Amino acid sequence: MQILYFETLDSTQIYLKEKLLKKELNAPIAISAEVQTSGIGSRDNAWESAKGNLFLSFALPLKQLPCDLQLASASIYFSYLLQETLVAFGSKVWIKWPNDFYFGEKKIGGMITNIVDENIVCGFGLNITDAPKEFAKLDIAIEKKVLLENYFKNIEKKVLWKQVFSKYKLEFYRNQNFFTHSNGVKVSLGDATLNTDGSLNINGERIYSLR
Length: 211
Known about the structure:
Elements: E1 3-9, H1 12-21, E2 29-36, E3 54-61, H2 74-88, E4 94-96, E5 100-103, E6 106-116, E7 119-126, H3 144-156, H4 161-171, E8 179-182, E9 185-188, E10 193-194, E11 200-202, E12 205-207
Parallel strand pairs: 1-2
Antiparallel strand pairs: 2-3, 3-7, 4-5, 5-6, 6-7, 8-9, 10-11, 11-12
Helix pairs in contact: 2-3, 2-4
C-alpha cells in the first residue's frame, strides 16, 4: 500500500475522495496527515485533531475485497483488523459497535467507511499521543509507520469476513452498557442481537453499520 504523507490537511477523507473522483489518484492508496484542521467523526461530527495522533484514509478497489465481505460489514471488518493489529503489540483496545475504538470506558478513535466509484474508502483517527477531554489515548507506545505497515499487511491477507465475525461476536458483549444512534435517536446496545452480516436487531429494527 502506497502511503502519501502530509503535514497538514483539512481532512484525509475529503482529500482522498476528491482525488479519486477527479482520477488524480487510484486505489490502492492511503493518505496520512500529521494534523487535520477539519477532521470528520461519526455522524459528521468534528474530530479534534492533535499533532502526533494518527489521521489516515485509504482506498481499496471493491474487486480486491474478500469474496464474502458485504459492504454492510465493511466498517466492522476494517475496524477489527486494526484492533487485531494493535492487540498484537499489547493493546487492550476493543471495538464499540460498529467502528469506534475504545480503551476501557473511553473512546480513543473511530473509523468511517464510504464508497467512491468502484472503491471502498476508509478513514480513521486514533489518539496515540494526546486526547481531548472525556476521551482517552492508546494504551501502548507505537510508531505510526510501524502500526500502518502491520495493519496493511493484515488487510492484504484478505481474511474472510466469516473468520473476522467469528472473533468479533465473542467480544460483542462489551457493548452492553453503551449506546448507538439510529435515525438520529439514541438507542441502547444492551438488548441488541448481532446478525451475521454485522447488523443489529434492536426493538424490531435492523440497523446497519456502514457509515
